[in-house]
Amino acid sequence: MNFTGQTALVVGASRGFGRGVVESLLAKEMIVTAVARNREDLEDLARKTSAKIIVADAAGEQAAERILSETKPNLLVLSAGTSLDLRPLYEHTWETFSRPWEVDTKLTFLWVRAVLRANEGPEHVVVFGSGAALFGSPLSGGYAGAKKMNAFIAEYASGLASRTKRPIRFHCLIPPMSPHTEFGAAAASAYAQMSGQTFQEFVKQLPSPPSPADIGAAVVALHEDPKKWNQVSYRISAKGLAPVE
Description:
- The protein is α/β, with parallel strands linked by helices.
- It has one domain (7-239): NAD(P)-binding Rossmann-like Domain (Rossmann fold, 3-Layer(aba) Sandwich).
- An 8-stranded mixed β-sheet has the order 3-2-1-4-5-6-7-8, with helices on both faces.
- The protein is 46% helix and 16% strand.
- The chain is globular.
């Protein structure tokens, strides 16, 4: 597929996996707009790449419809999420436990809803789930359930698009814990401590954790390879994509 001239909007693009997606899409000569709350990180991205930037709270009620209307992307990637309060269940409050639902799931719901409501919009939407949704995440409160709901939202939207003959593809990308990002390294450190291991010992046990570049390559593969379009959810590791059965 020729990406030149296509437009992409990456939400949660200032660091980690989202930044890896931006860099991979730019390498394919797409016109990329990056959205995040952190102005400093976004401005750093703009200095180092040709990405356009929008500073916004993507979980705000009006953000999705406004930004989609302004940018009209061919590809929308939703990689944003909240930071985690990593602690045992009994140390959580309902506020800390439910925060992933109020940010990660709410954000996914609002943006996917805006896509489905629009008369014209992206032809491809990639939602981020998490391996926590498959195996649990005992130190992160409601995070595993929130990410599982993200996968369901992608499935629901894909089915709706098919039934109504809307030409929109929906995918859910499910990465495992990865020490290659600040977010993943914090989680790995907490789980290493819980299991009585050093950080290095714990990380050695992780099965092929993906880097931001691996995630970017996975998004490119989902966007350009029609053989992958009929499957909604994919697990991703450093070895590539694998369909979720």
